[in-house]
Amino acid sequence: MTVDARADGLPAPGGALNHYVSDAPFDPNIDDSGVGEVAEASQLRLMWWQFRKHRVAVVSLVFLLILYTSTIFVEFLAPYQQDSRHLDDIYEPPQQVHLFHEGAFVGPFVYGRDMTLDMDNLRRVYDEEDARVEKLRFFCHGDPYMFWGQIPASLHLVCPAEGGTFFALGTDRLGRDVLSRMMYGARISLTIGLLGVTMSLVLGIVIGGLAGYHGGWFDAAVQRVTEVLQSIPSIPLWMALAAIIPVTWSPLLVYVGITLILGLLDWTGLARAVRSKLLSLREEDYVLAARLMGAGTTRIIGRHMVPGFMSHLIASATLTIPGMILGETALSFLGIGLRPPITSWGTMLTEARSVNIVAIYPWLIFPVVPVILVVLAFNFLGDGLRDAADPYH
Questions:
Q1: 51: number of Cβ within 10 Å
Q2: SS3 state at 124
Q3: Judging by DSSP bridges, how do beta strands 151-159 and 2-3 pair with one another?
């Protein structure tokens, strides 16, 4: 390497770009396509490259994609229909799946059980018989159902043996399969988070964006409203609004009402964050240039200012969804949210409100496991997306 300079000691024209040059001759066979590929890579591709470095976030993304995809085919994946009752199997403990019987490979199967009544403790006792092998069936016909309420079908991924039962997570007080109801409940609990956070994001960006861009009396009014809403405890406010929903409403209207409540009460934090960011961005040169070129308020905020802090919006969205899920679960657990016949993780947990029930039938609290896993997955995913979208990372 040699210094490219003039004889008088001054640097050569071109500045720092021409300061260091190589004495090696130009080789046209050198492959420099990688440099061009990186230079031409889109912002989304660069974000994806950065996101892949966050292993936990990638695993969380795959887990959530599988979970949300399964909600589409829940009727096929569930062993039973959500309201199928088995009166001879009330409060039956979970059945363990086995592969080997007496040293020989049989395949997935469960042992049959006989039920007896314990009159001393007033309980049902299920005794497992090692001689009764009930082999599970796959891609079989079982309980009939209406796929998405439109297409009649009866095909299931897994079914019990003919005349047998398969309760991987036990049954409840009505003899309904807990695993099947958890699968059906995922459709409600997961989608209510997406709908609620979409409404929250729209309200937060629109209201906070207008307050930060225009300022003045509108900004002052928005700040006073957000301060009042944030000063009220969340759970009592949710309970008060949820109690207003008439008991005569259909399950669909109740679902929409709970979604509206969760979305309308969770936009204040995002609106204040958007407002504070736009207060600083509205003085930038590119915003002034867009205004002088005749761009409207909507275009300036949506096309020029909001993309500048997209990383914060992404992190806020992924962290808001678990809050929505927990809000629905809490309202349904307290009995003022979604109501039967709607099945959600919150409505299933209402049966585990008694300490005695939990002590005797602990499998009824299994619906809390997917709630915990989904909340953790969204938190890890939010961290990964925030780091990937952060231009200063």
A1: 18
A2: strand
A3: unpaired
Q: What is the spatial distance between Cα 48 and Cα 51, in angstroms, rounded to a whole number?
A: 5
Structure tokens at 126: 């299920």
DSSP 156: E
**For residue 151, what are the β-bridge partners?**
147
What is the phi-psi region of residue 186: left when phi exceeds 0, alpha when psi lies from -120 to 50, beta otherwise? alpha
pTM: 0.75
Residue indicated by tokens 């761009």: 295
Closest by CA to 390, choosing from 330, 268, 308, is: 308
Residue 256 to residue 244: CA distance in whole angstroms: 13
Angle, helix 310-333 to helix 251-264, in steps of 10 degrees: 130
Question: What pLDDT score does 42 carry?
Answer: 64
DSSP H stretches of helix in the chain: 33-40, 43-51, 55-70, 74-77, 178-214, 216-231, 234-244, 251-264, 268-281, 285-292, 297-299, 310-333, 345-349, 355-360, 368-389
How do 98-101 and 20-21 pair as beta strands? unpaired
Q: Which among 211, 249, 212 is positioned nearest to 336, based on CA atoms? A: 249
CA–CA distances in Å: residue 231 to residues 144, 201, 225, 258, 268: 50, 20, 10, 21, 11
* CB hemisphere CA count around 253 (13 angstroms): 7
Q: φ and ψ at 134, to 5 degrees?
A: -115, 100
Exposed/middle/buried for residue 310 (C-beta within 10 Å: 0-12, 13-18, 19+):
middle
pLDDT of 391: 53
pLDDT at residue number 150:
83
Instruction: Pick the closest to residue 192 from 244, 245, 262, 253 (CA basis).
Output: 262
- The helix (H) or strand (E) run that includes residue 113 is strand 104-118
Give the integer Cα–Cα distance in Å for 360 and 357: 5
Q: How far apart are CA 111 and CA 70, in angstroms?
A: 28
Residues of the chain short of pLDDT 50, as ranges, are 1-24, 26-28, 30-41
Alpha carbon distance 345, 326 (integer Å)? 10
Express each pLDDT in 296-341 by its tens digit: 777 887 777 777 777 677 777 777 788 778 877 877 777 777 777 7
Match 């949820």 to its residue by tokens: 242
CB atoms within 10 A of CB 67: 15
